[in-house]
Batch of 2 targets.
Target 1
Amino acid sequence: MSELETISMHVITSAEEICAVVLAAKSSGQSVGFVPTMGALHEGHLSLVDASLAECDLTVVSIFVNPTQFSPEEDLEKYPRPLQRDLQLLTERGCEIVFVPTAAEMYPEGVESTVEVGSVASPFEGASRPHHFQGVATVVSKLFQVVPADRAYFGRKDYQQALVVVQLIEDFNLPITMRVCPIVREPDGLAMSSRNTYLRPEQRQQASALWQSLRIAEQAHAAGETDVAAIKKKMMQHLNSAGIENVDYIAFVTDGTVQEVETVAGPTVVAIAARLGKSRLIDNHTIG
Amino acid sequence: MSELETISMHVITSAEEICAVVLAAKSSGQSVGFVPTMGALHEGHLSLVDASLAECDLTVVSIFVNPTQFSPEEDLEKYPRPLQRDLQLLTERGCEIVFVPTAAEMYPEGVESTVEVGSVASPFEGASRPHHFQGVATVVSKLFQVVPADRAYFGRKDYQQALVVVQLIEDFNLPITMRVCPIVREPDGLAMSSRNTYLRPEQRQQASALWQSLRIAEQAHAAGETDVAAIKKKMMQHLNSAGIENVDYIAFVTDGTVQEVETVAGPTVVAIAARLGKSRLIDNHTIG
């Protein structure tokens, strides 16, 4: 902990301790906001922190690279963990309490239980990443007990993840209110993501084609096109022309669901996942 | 609700309302005990109520025949639901707050999430009743959110169920303390169970052989026998001689686990399940 001592912030590693801090705040009438993260913070995360700070008396950020939401072949080992920088960013933003548990604190020996949230977790990210949402739902279930906040803040970039957490909250009667905050983008439109750091310079340039393809969908719809197949074709042409061949999915779903539509007839989320080299990027945009 | 109005007791059917009542009690410094039941109350349940009343300022009993813990071929439809009698018994015992949700209150349309607790749920009851413990763990997870009590009271007759709930509490960091209370027996030793009412008179007589077989195990061990196979043989002989042929399992496990042993070398739970006609009875006893 010596490297952290220069930062004026409460860094708590014990589940019992963070729980006591949150309960004490609530007992004294304070509202508590919670921003669960895997660290490697960017302006997307920090916008969630800002939203919580604006709405709640106390804001708790957790930094935990949750192993159970990674598949064996995924990037758990190389996932960035710039802890000191993260704490510095949170301090500058005015967040005073950060929960940084070890894997052993979150998953003591003998832990085996898991949560399945059902059909909302099946398609798209759930299909591409088996067990991913089981890992997300399980760790979020645990974090919501350990940090019994009034409100939780998630980013809309992970659209399906937000739906999974909403389903979890509703199905298990969890006493927390979900806030889903807008996507924060780089100047060229690329959605901010901790995984963007994996991109080599030429891939980083290509990556903006994801956002461009979502804008193409928006513009096509604004020009009167409602046929999803036709819009997808335009998007795919653009992605291919930018050198992105490995598209996991382009999906048009009714906003707030994972229900695919064939015609844009109301608020519709266009979601996309593509691979650039070893990196996998996702993005989405609401049209209609 | 008119039939309930003669009973001086708070019968609450809304999850939101019971949660508010419990939180208000806790805010005012009261400790809260929770006894989740499926109704058809007997002295076993009432001993849990007594334990909670003795230890907690406020006791909440829930009565909910949870559909998700029954298999399609099981006795959900015919499970006894003597609600008025249950409320009368609770009133006499001094319990003032009963939560009686409908299935729609606990499982609104769209609910899909489930909890799996892992290996503790696999053998014995888990093997005989697929999905049973998934249903138990899921409804207990929900009930613990809706009734955020300090302590939960379960009976030791459902030994493996108690282990499942302990695992659930530990794995999901649930802020509740588990109390497992002793088995309550009829004068002839039959463990009290709401399902005993299914037994026809001759089956009811036979049923005491379960307890007798557990006593035989205890006595054999007291006389120096430690070999589990030898003790099981004596138990089975007794059960067969009483006309009980359909034994699901006799298991010797280290107390507090579902780990089977071949030799009694310390505190050991002897668990038994058998079918008498259409009824399935379980019991257990600790020896060693």
Target 2
Amino acid sequence: MNKLLIVGTVAFDAIETPFGKTDKILGGAATYIGLSASQFDVESAIVSVVGEDFPQEYLELLKSRNIDLSGTEIVKGGKTFFWSGKYYNDLNTRETLDTQLNVLADFEPVVPEDFKSPDIVMLGNLHPLVQKSVLDQLKRPKLVVLDTMNFWMDNTWDQLVEVIGQVDVVTINDEEARQLSKEHSLIKAAAKIEEMGPKYVVIKKGEHGAMLFHGGKVFFAPALPLDEVFDPTGAGDTFAGGFTGYLAQTGDISFENMKNAVVYGSNLASFCVEKFGTERMQELTSKEVQQRLYGFKALTQFDIKLT
Amino acid sequence: MNKLLIVGTVAFDAIETPFGKTDKILGGAATYIGLSASQFDVESAIVSVVGEDFPQEYLELLKSRNIDLSGTEIVKGGKTFFWSGKYYNDLNTRETLDTQLNVLADFEPVVPEDFKSPDIVMLGNLHPLVQKSVLDQLKRPKLVVLDTMNFWMDNTWDQLVEVIGQVDVVTINDEEARQLSKEHSLIKAAAKIEEMGPKYVVIKKGEHGAMLFHGGKVFFAPALPLDEVFDPTGAGDTFAGGFTGYLAQTGDISFENMKNAVVYGSNLASFCVEKFGTERMQELTSKEVQQRLYGFKALTQFDIKLT
């Protein structure tokens, strides 16, 4: 079984959408990535940090999904990273109400011995120096995927560019791709980002789907149209977990197989948004995943004969 | 050869985009629909009206594409419909600078004898009473497709709802679908519009592609990613021309074949936006169309085996 190393936050979220609001619930990029990747036959581990206030049941939940938490530090007397946000009516815009870094402020990631030669690495959205520090501890993996956001472009540009230069795939949303590349056209943006190092660029467009770019080639997967999106939190990380989980399971990092990985990622993300937080991902069965893939085929595949 | 009846404006446009601006050039919904449909083996006719100021060369251009203009009235002493608009930096928003209805104000469409039993009818964006007046002159065609816009929802709601009740397919953009259905979710919006009469709904999302809905089924075709979009004018009408032209050529109005029609429409629209006005559509060769379909396949088709 191939190894997937996941780096990212394990956290508390408090979420408000037009449909309701939650108290502190389980959140964090690595949580969503891990739950999503657990739909595949992979050995995964999360490198992260939580405080002493983090419920044992949340840790048990992740462990029950065959996720190794020996690299997830529990800081004595420390408080877990907390994020609170509110989505507006169209669910495309959100406002951060509160961010408490807590134990994340001094996070020094330590990769467990067993995962120092992983097949695939998923660097979730974190300070680029933390992402780099993880890479420095590894023997060169088959594929390194990095997620980031505008905050790091605004505040740690040089460090971000440095770590991006060391990875194979960048996943990023459309506005961030434009900010990173200083290009409006997504084709040009992806080409510029490829010049920074990564051979592959995934641009996430939320409800408008995801695009995979590689050396002038493009693949596009729509988001599955849903009756209602309930809570978009974690959709991008769930996509990343599906993308890397599928690549780790198959061990095939060709462009053709990455197309499939984008479809799997989009498919899993379509479940994530159906309930608050990680709720839907916790109860999700492989049968449901498989059934919705039929929906994806029907949605996108056509039969034009070309001569 | 199957017959395609096109109803819509033949007009002058003056366009300003971030890349430049034009004087009065050839425009109008029926013009774009006709040029696009002329990529297929169909007999088409345009029912429209122009003024005496309309250049003979524009009429010759359309005739050279095997488009029957016997139903396009030339009003003596009249002035042709004129629209002028300006696009902003992202090309997703535009402002109408000037609209001069001129001969369109008193337009009473007359369908030529030869086209009173067409196979397919494309009712371009016009006053719903004009659209209805055309339908009243026809023996029931195989398929009637209607395009409309928010202006008619704001000003002629009852007449619009009446004519929508008489057609098979509505093509409409996402915001207009929401306005027409009073639903935010596009799935729910399409279902509501189907309840109004049409069995099929095409929702156009510009750079984010197009969706085809029918009885709970959905198909999605992305817009082909382009290095630059030069001028979006006419893209929706070019889509409609490709959609109906392909359906008329094949004579197959099944949902499966409509998927292909959506792809052909999207493919043709991707050319339209590459130059000002109708310029690109005038020079477009069938070889270019065919080649770009390969791009569409590569963009969207994947190979996940389902058990």
